[in-house]
Write a structure and sequence with these properties.
The structure is a single chain. The protein is mainly alpha-helical. It contains 5 helices and 7 strands, in the order H-E-E-H-E-E-H-E-E-H-E-H. The protein has a 3-stranded antiparallel β-sheet with strand order 6-5-7. One of its GO terms (molecular function) is zinc ion binding. Keywords: Metal-binding, Zinc, Zinc-finger. It comes from Branchiostoma lanceolatum (Common lancelet).
Length: 238
């Protein structure tokens, strides 16, 4: 059964960097821990466990590249710490019981939450900063900056995955060429051995023929010698 028939695999533009492409659940540090295959595609631990049941190799649900499972199974696959760190960084910072704010606090006005990035000064500022010390400076919403940086990170990840797949394909091509060369070498060696055996067999045949010819010549000479000796003996006694 094809991977996309067994699991729901979202298209690249539909899949959030921080969610598993199979179950579409957010990664975490437990059952949804992000783990990477040899092709660098990342899925949660739970889905890979289901997908690799009773298997020695695991076929990537996205690109179909096969990854050999280590002796520990899915637990032995590399943990994608990079994505885990982003998950941790994306969570709201813990607040005290008397603090209502979930965002970062302005260093100049502690009672205010930063909502802008001052493009001119490259610092996070609150609404009062915009109206005072940073009046007239170009501003960008923090949410927009976060969305932009997240998109940039996703683009980098996709680019890395693309280059990784190109490397994997190049390695597979090289391995195929090596296998073909080994096969060709085996064929050449087999032909050399066959030719040598044929030459040796031909020499053996010629050797036997020459031995037989030599024996025939010796027997003929022996008969001739006996005939001459017998004739001479007859002449001598007559």
């Amino acid at each position: 059964m094809a991977a996309r028939d067994k699991f729901h695999i979202g298209e690249p533009e539909e899949v959030d960097l921080l969610t598993c492409p199979i179950c579409l659940e957010a990664f975490d540090s437990d059952q949804r821990k992000p783990r990477s295959l040899q092709c660098l595609h990342t899925f949660c631990h739970g889905c890979l466990e289901d997908f690799s049941a009773n298997k020695q190799t695991l076929e990537c649900p996205t690109c179909r590249h096969e990854t050999a499972l280590p002796s520990q199974g899915v637990k032995g696959l590399p943990h994608n710490f990079w994505i885990s760190n982003i998950v941790v960084a994306s969570k709201p910072a813990p607040t005290t019981s008397g603090d209502r704010k979930e965002g970062e606090i302005c260093k100049v006005h502690p009672e205010k939450e930063v909502i802008f990035l001052c493009d001119h000064c490259d610092v996070l500022v609150c609404s009062e900063c915009v109206a005072s010390t940073h009046r007239g400076h170009p501003m960008t919403l923090v949410s927009d900056v976060l969305q932009q940086k997240t998109a940039e990170v996703q683009n980098v990840v996709r680019s890395c995955q693309k280059h990784a797949m190109q490397c994997v394909e190049a390695i597979e091509t090289i391995e195929k060429i090596e296998a073909d060369l080994d096969a060709q070498r085996g064929e050449v060696v087999a032909k050399i051995i066959e030719a040598r055996e044929a030459v040796v067999a031909n020499i053996d045949v010629k050797e036997r023929a020459l031995r037989k010819e030599v024996e025939q010549i010796m027997m003929r000479n022996l008969r001739d010698s006996l005939t001459v000796s017998r004739d001479l003996y007859r002449l001598w006694i007559s």
